[in-house]
Amino acid sequence: MTRALGVAVIGYSFMGRAHSNAWRNVGAFHPHLPRVSQQVLVGRDEPAVRSAADQLGWREWAIDWRDVVTRDDVDVVDICTPGHLHHEIALAALHAGKHVVVEKPLTNTLEESAELVEVASKARAGGVRSMVGFNYRCVPALALARSVIADGRIGEVRQVRASYLQDWLVDPAAPMTWRLRKEQAGSGVLGDLGSHLVDQVRFLLDDEIETVSGRLETFVESRPGPSGAEPVTVDDAAWALLGTTRGAVVSVEVSRMAAGRKNSLQIEVFGSGGSVAFDLERLNELWVDTGEGRTRVLVTEPDHPHLAPWWPPGHVLGWDHTFTTQAAGFLAAIADGTDPTPSFEDGLAVQRVLDAVERSDVAGRGTVDLATS
Amino acid sequence: MTRALGVAVIGYSFMGRAHSNAWRNVGAFHPHLPRVSQQVLVGRDEPAVRSAADQLGWREWAIDWRDVVTRDDVDVVDICTPGHLHHEIALAALHAGKHVVVEKPLTNTLEESAELVEVASKARAGGVRSMVGFNYRCVPALALARSVIADGRIGEVRQVRASYLQDWLVDPAAPMTWRLRKEQAGSGVLGDLGSHLVDQVRFLLDDEIETVSGRLETFVESRPGPSGAEPVTVDDAAWALLGTTRGAVVSVEVSRMAAGRKNSLQIEVFGSGGSVAFDLERLNELWVDTGEGRTRVLVTEPDHPHLAPWWPPGHVLGWDHTFTTQAAGFLAAIADGTDPTPSFEDGLAVQRVLDAVERSDVAGRGTVDLATS
Amino acid sequence: MTRALGVAVIGYSFMGRAHSNAWRNVGAFHPHLPRVSQQVLVGRDEPAVRSAADQLGWREWAIDWRDVVTRDDVDVVDICTPGHLHHEIALAALHAGKHVVVEKPLTNTLEESAELVEVASKARAGGVRSMVGFNYRCVPALALARSVIADGRIGEVRQVRASYLQDWLVDPAAPMTWRLRKEQAGSGVLGDLGSHLVDQVRFLLDDEIETVSGRLETFVESRPGPSGAEPVTVDDAAWALLGTTRGAVVSVEVSRMAAGRKNSLQIEVFGSGGSVAFDLERLNELWVDTGEGRTRVLVTEPDHPHLAPWWPPGHVLGWDHTFTTQAAGFLAAIADGTDPTPSFEDGLAVQRVLDAVERSDVAGRGTVDLATS
Amino acid sequence: MTRALGVAVIGYSFMGRAHSNAWRNVGAFHPHLPRVSQQVLVGRDEPAVRSAADQLGWREWAIDWRDVVTRDDVDVVDICTPGHLHHEIALAALHAGKHVVVEKPLTNTLEESAELVEVASKARAGGVRSMVGFNYRCVPALALARSVIADGRIGEVRQVRASYLQDWLVDPAAPMTWRLRKEQAGSGVLGDLGSHLVDQVRFLLDDEIETVSGRLETFVESRPGPSGAEPVTVDDAAWALLGTTRGAVVSVEVSRMAAGRKNSLQIEVFGSGGSVAFDLERLNELWVDTGEGRTRVLVTEPDHPHLAPWWPPGHVLGWDHTFTTQAAGFLAAIADGTDPTPSFEDGLAVQRVLDAVERSDVAGRGTVDLATS
């Protein structure tokens, strides 16, 4: 029997917890994939990372990711830090020959993403696997939507409505966080939630974005910080219109000010022969209309995507299960010697669209052509 | 007892039927308003208008609206023709001193609308009432939404999502009609459905549109006409972003290609303290969220707007009841000597926004400032 | 041209208004049926009936139904009084050779219903038409459900869940009305709402009820009357289990105490190959599941039952439109010389089931076999 | 640091997997509870149990539960076998002084349940904890419903509609299983799904069942077994009416033949001041109506029951998370020296109701009084 793959997760906060959960459970649901050993959890605050490692099932903890990415007992480096650190850690891990998972967005800047793509591409030749963590590709209902579209069941796609709405910033008294500072977060809701939507559109349609127009808005311009009011330097809400290579038009709307919407990623795809619709707040359901009416498919059958390892029909999954499926996909790629998706190239493609939204907003909100700019 | 008000309806097709239905029923539900006499129905095709008049409860029929708008037994002229005839008929009726209802959109061009506003404004001084027929202001749930917003229950409005989706053009083999020819229809779905959305946004928010960017799209560029393929000269779908005087941002999306959506006008208004949401396919329901969750209000209580004359709670209304309520509002204004809403000024304000969408589309889709252009 | 059929409606309250509305509108939507003249509205309170007649479009009003049912200008007698008067008026009208519509329930007692069936049966031989007014047979979505079942699309029916829930008696302070006195109303919610459910089950399944068990409950035993507290002598809620000839089991639940349910008639029919589901609060929708998921059919297409005369797809109907369709069905039967449905026999069949529910409740709630008791 | 509690799970099939998953994850979400060690998984088929133990995170596997329940390194025995084995294993474990979890139903017979209650009651005095596994008490939305009711927000409960519908037996060709044989399963859907409903009603209302009437039905009387058609000796569907001590009436309906319903436990509770409603297919949502309309509460906030350890608002949970919460509750009781719920007494109370349903069905379906029979 081969040695289990050693995994290191960098970051122990929200995403670090979600990824740890996935590594702890992936073997129980995917017994035929390579075994995993939760080798080391990395974070800068010693008491916190020690406690998190203990709680989340890790053998060890460490303070400095530099010491970890070269360890012999680490085969996979999974990066869950804030976005401005992704580039440096991923580069080091790839250079050390480790398989790398980067939580989305790939990086905070186009330049960094482009460099990561190049390095990952070379590493690929040596069998090093890399993936960006758009976990919603692992929602069974969305994977089913992709296959419904790919099978031509809704015809040629013409129009897509995509929105991702949350409300945790509705109250002007909600405090300042690193997510609202441009230097750490890169952008606001556009990068955080808009990146998921752009990735989903590319995933569902299997098509590329060619033209972009967009608008950003900051409704609450300063918020209480530890030492008084602090300016919010990122967007609270954003809108975009995207044109695809095959002629579809996609409207995008994201917000952290949408009172009453907690985590509502909604996508509706209209084709020449039908439509599909989805809402993340009801993640086990897909609506499919091929002419007879809107059909609510409870996506919990064993022959639906990603569901065979789980429970009987009607026994619904939750948000965190997507990470377990994502981890399984990465392990399968390692085992099969194939490239996992979404790739760093996918991550870069998303960043290029988000960058164009920002450029459009600055320049009067007219259309930006990605092919020529 | 005073003489009943004589009504003439011009047009006996879809809207002519809906308005006739309203004039036939308004007295039964509003006994305290002035009585109405269905005097004459007007149309160009003699056998058709004769048969329609007989069926829909009219005393007489006529071929030429010019003969009708000056008749002594006609007090109200209700114009339900295609848009390119609105201007001429309305002018004649106002000049004859008749109260005038014009089905939306007010006219096909800004110039025509501006002239109507001017003439109606003068006529108003002489007690002549005029109204444009945005019947969805009479949907009880939308009227309730307006009052929820006006009462400050959702705080300051920041973000609005408005869409109106139909699917009767999904099939490229669907035949050519006057609605797809620019010279008759003025525009495509933008004018037809977009006008309802712009009016609703102004109605719900009690706010004005200041900036506009937009895009139009024709997905199916020619359709079978009586003598072969004919070019479609209007838009199949349209998008806009609107900025209001008080700082709200409104996204608008309209389409006749949204497979599976039959008549789905959806509006969601997000404020600093909550939200409201509506879908015309479930026109008796309003969703209100003021912090505890999304509440489905079945808008059928006697103390809800417009509902006192109708049925007990839970006995739902249909689409056509909005026209009866609209007719009642017009009669009440005549009786009270007040000005009915929406006014021709409201109709013009909508036309200005739609015009700006078209200009933005032509000019690279950037922002148009209504104050300066 | 033949003379229009003269109609008399007896009763001008809730049902009298709804039926008047239907007679006033039926011609506009069904021009090929016999013409109708709203001849006379009958009620005991002179000022009230005079005012109602004027408002609702009637030529005349009258105080005594005895004078009316024999008039030469009356061809149709439509009985909308409380249930204890149905029997006497219907008998007189049938004896006078008039076509008769009786609002449900047919009568308050089995004996009365049996006699009406006998008399109507004889009158039928002379071309006299009779119908009981279960208007929900005219809900397009329910008529579609019946045809889905009849076409075998959900297989053999096994299990039905039927409920009709309202909440107007939730508050113990809600005042006494004739509907809560056994001598006038016959029974409480069982007869009022339960009768609709039993009729629907027979209509949808085209099957007969054979066995019945049931329970009645009065949660609030006295209510404020004009001269102090008065005992409630009917049921607030009722339950039944019905067995059909073909082996289906039907659960029935009705209540006027179901807080938050305004007028919610829900039916779900499960067969060996699928299911259908309906809720009157969303009366334009039918849910059909034949294996792929639950499909929401927006029942507003011209080829759906009863919809051809109305509006384009997605332009929803309301509760009162069912009465117009019901009136059209009655007129069509008169014109064609056929027997309209539901017949008095159908009305009696419903009464027999309701009677068995009451007997079961009294006798320990065990099963009553309709064939042997 | 104290030694981790050693756990043994008996059974590795559906429930054995779900409970294993809970023991593997409980520490990560509840770090302040006693640590757990997955000591041994027990099953009769050596290759299968060996493989399952390896996959599901167990240190060891064993064939004979008798060897396991007395092991020094086992503190908790968690019984996930078919119901006919619960009694014997639980007795042995209690006698060995182990804490015991029994998956529902407690046992297949009243006698067995009564004996277990007695033995567990004595063991309790010695600090031995026991619990029956009605995991739906751990659904956050249902726990919230209980607290809404307990706080009096819907007033005095009068009427409850409870159903649990699945469809895995719709097809008459679905094969025979142990669940359809009375000697192993005890009963059919009544015990399997009805037990959940009865427990939920007692949990939500904090009230006791006093009267019971019921009916059982087997729609498909034989099914293909390994050696030809085999009789189905349990119920496919069941109905009951329950009366509670405080005067509420509860309707219960359960089925494995409800085409299109995959795992739909629905409960609607109507009180004198409002209502709550729930559907397990949307397990993160609770509907609450206290007079303004039906409010959909997305039960994912940190201050909702059971949710503090999980994810941010809107990041929904799945079915299997309920078992983790259940395990945490059991560990907390051990740590605190309190008695966990639901107790064996609760399990017995449920069995008494189910037994009364069966007796009512046999005896003409009339009412059985639990106090006197």
Concise account of the structure shown:
With 373 residues, chain A is of the alpha/beta class. Chain A has helices at residues 14-29, 46-56, 65-68, 86-95, 110-125, 140-150, 182-185, 189-205, 321-336, 344-362, and strands spanning 5-10, 36-42, 60-62, 76-79, 99-103, 130-133, 157-165, 209-217, 222-225, 228-231, 237-244, 249-255, 264-271, 274-279, 285-289, 294-298, 368-369.
Which characteristics define this entry?
homotetramer, 373 residues, alpha/beta, Rossmann fold, 10 helices
Tell me the domain tally of chain A.
2
Task: Please tell me the CATH architecture of the largest domain in chain A by its name.
Answer: 2-Layer Sandwich
Low-pLDDT sequence parts of chain A: none
DSSP helical segment count of chain A: 10
CATH class of the largest domain in chain A: Alpha Beta
User: What series of H and E elements makes up the topology of chain A?
Assistant: EHEHEHEHEHEHEHHEEEEEEEEEHHE
So what's the overall shape of chain A?
A: globular
CATH superfamily of the largest domain in chain A: Dihydrodipicolinate Reductase, domain 2
